[in-house]
Amino acid sequence: MTPTPPNSIIWARSLCTSPIRSPDADRKAISSMNSERRLSAGVLGAGLIGVDLAVKVERSAALDLRLVAGRTADSPGLKRAARLGLPAASRGLSSLADLDEPLDVVFDATNAGSHAEHAEALAPLGTLLIDLTPSRIGRMVVPTVNGAEAAAHRDLNMVSCGGQASVPIVRAITRAHRIDYVEVVATAATLSVGRGTRLNLDEYVETTQDALREFTGIGDVKAILNVSPARPPATFRVAMSLVGEGLTHESVHPLVASAAADVRAFATGYTVTSCIVNDNKAFIAVEVTSAGDQIPAYAGNLDIINSAAIRVAERCAVERRPIEAMEVVS
Q1: In this predicted structure, what is the pLDDT of residue 284?
Q2: Nearest to 110 by CA among 129, 87, 85, 83
Q3: Can 161 be counted among the known catalytic residues?
Q4: Among residues 16, 161, 275, 316, which one is catalytic?
């Protein structure tokens, strides 16, 4: 990559501080919801992602948290959930399936290898399943890209943390320019990468690449995940490199700023730290800090995928389409 032009620091800073857009019609509808219209929700998995997700669900005006289900009664996650006063159970999927009334939505925060079983078990109950694992089974959703169609599907896949951070910006650029190559490198602190993610590193890369291809139309893409052991822990960072035609500071800057503002509407710690364009090559870097619920500030990888999942569920609550009308995605 060529050296940073003199004005790039000021330029990147202007991207970081561009104002968050006003709440849209969905957000206004969510804030006015009453308890009868909220979706009953459960969280499957009580790891790094699950408990934070449960707290976000409980805080949402569109969702009604009924249960956090783990598999081990003495796990740190379920103990933490109990300390927070969250409803919790230790029989995993059975705990959710055996409730008196089927849940409207279940967030799967386990691992990619288990998601197919979970989807099969919950399908007869008409439950909307939002998958936070890189299983590549359901309809991939990035809220600012195709969130409007989420309510038409029963099994939704949230891609990956790197996908949620990169797809909105890469798509915005590819819609305005011919792009021949895209590379996305995500760096996450080792303390923010749980057992499920470690088991699914290959799936993470493949799912992120699939999402980049699907949402941008670019065939030549590469995704990389670095797990950093640095102390203090590294803040979650995603670097995007694009090679194409007609890329200039003037054309790329507003596209990046607009896409970033859309993401910050639900992931407030999403910040553009670099945006450099030279010789038809663009380099954009973002950092994501968490909102400070049940995960540390550096674990923006967990925060952005959880926040995206909540955003999608809230959109579905607003749509409130009958479950019978949803498309079953194989």
Answers
A1: 98
A2: 129
A3: yes
A4: 161
